[in-house]
Design brief:
Elements lengths: L1 E3 L3 H7 L17 E7 L2 E10 L4 E8 L7 H19 L3 E7 L3 H9 L3 E10 L2 E9 L4
Parallel strand pairs: 4-5
Antiparallel strand pairs: 1-2, 2-3, 3-4, 5-7, 6-7
């Protein structure tokens, strides 16, 4: 399993197979992107975008194919996030998760994010939990 740059083919593969059931909309602007690939199959896509010099947001969408490999997916994502945060001096990483999406909630909590608050109408008309991951300066 590996992380590599995101391509349109990755987006086209994940979109109809998304665990979010089609409720995910990819942000239009972000600084870093990735595709999580296993044996030539795209399991997930994501990215990180800066909000300020030390604060960024993270987004992720996974294909149903990733469900059988979640421990490896979590490990690779966590390594990527911490490495990128260290090199880019990101101290605060935010993620918004639909309040009614238990798979997304489990994912961010497993990665170490803490629930900060509920935000109304962040994901269209749906409320979302804002999660935050504080990263240590090294």
């Amino acid at each position: 399993m590996e992380l590599r740059r995101l391509t349109q083919d990755d987006i086209d593969y994940v979109k109809p197979r998304s665990i979010s059931g089609g409720n995910f909309k990819m942000p239009s602007e972000f600084e870093w992107d990735f595709a999580l690939v296993d044996e030539g199959k795209t399991l997930g896509i994501g990215g990180i975008g800066l909000l300020t010099l030390t604060t960024a947001f993270c987004w992720l969408d996974m294909a149903e194919d990733a469900k059988g490999k979640l421990l490896t997916v979590y490990r690779l994502l966590k390594e990527f996030i911490f490495k990128l945060a260290k090199t880019q001096k990101i101290r605060r990483l935010e993620a918004y998760v639909d309040c009614s999406f238990p798979e997304g909630i489990r994912l961010v909590e497993h990665l170490g994010y803490k629930r900060e608050c509920v935000c109304e109408k962040v994901l269209g008309d749906k409320p979302a939990y804002r999660y935050v991951l504080f990263l240590e300066e090294t």
